[in-house]
Specification:
mainly alpha, 3 strands, Rossmann fold, globular, Creatininase/forma_Hydrolase
Length: about 230
């Protein structure tokens, strides 16, 4: 259920019988030839498809994340780590105040990882609550499916090229050599753009849609199982 399609009275009624909810986290950043909102689109969509059969509400995706390294790419917007953690804290505090006690965070952006550490701190201060931090794209079953199809999978490559993140721009057909990830971490935003070029970290830009659908089905099922059975 989308919170955007509920009113407050429906949420109040829901909370009388269930205390679960989903909070997707995304980012607005370059993804090569794909949408700047890839991380937000995928985190929210996998959340909605996983939660719908269970009747669990999904809050709107937090569409801005931590992505300072992409600042030289127009359209990429970052929050400071301190700002981001403050926002996540406020969101969790607000959900707790409303009565939610089992919160599944579905994260779509690796740069948001500081929030995962923060969640442990927040739980320690709210021992009657449970918060799971789920990086949907590299969860065990989903990542295994990705690797089985093509082990060269990276940021802005084929593994993020779904029909719902794809634009009209035509990407190159050839496989891009994998970038030196250790080197990337040492570069300034301008240097990173010069080194990386179009934004793909390496690999093909697109694979057949049936393969992408197979990955997606695993991702949705894995997220749904967590929402259904992952609580202590």
């Amino acid at each position: 259920m989308k919170i955007a399609e509920m009113n407050w009275m429906e949420v109040e009624a829901y909370l009388k019988g269930d205390n679960r909810c989903v909070l997707p986290l995304g980012s607005t950043e370059q993804h090569g030839y794909l949408s700047l909102s890839v991380d937000s689109i995928l985190a929210e969509r996998v959340s909605l498809e996983a939660a719908a059969p269970l009747g669990v509400p999904v809050f709107p995706v937090l569409a801005y994340g931590i992505t300072p390294y992409f600042r030289a790419y127009p359209g990429s917007v970052t929050l400071r780590v301190s700002t981001y953690l403050s926002v996540v804290r406020d969101l969790l505090d607000g959900l707790y105040e409303q009565g939610f006690r089992r919160i599944l965070i579905v994260n779509g952006h690796g740069g948001n990882s500081p929030a995962q550490g923060f969640v442990g701190e927040w739980i320690a201060d709210h021992p009657d609550s449970q918060v799971m931090f789920h990086n949907w794209w590299n969860a065990p079953k989903t990542w295994a499916k990705v690797q089985a199809i093509d082990p060269v999978a990276s940021h802005a490559s084929w593994m993020e090229n779904f029909p719902w993140t794809r634009l009209e721009a035509t990407p190159p057909a050839e496989r891009k050599p994998l970038a030196d990830l250790a080197k990337l971490r040492l570069l300034s935003p301008a240097e990173l753009r010069r080194y990386l070029g179009d934004g793909n970290y390496g690999g093909l830009y697109q694979r057949p849609d049936p393969e992408m659908q197979a990955i997606w089905e695993v991702a949705v099922q894995e997220t749904q199982e967590l929402l259904q059975k992952g609580w202590a």
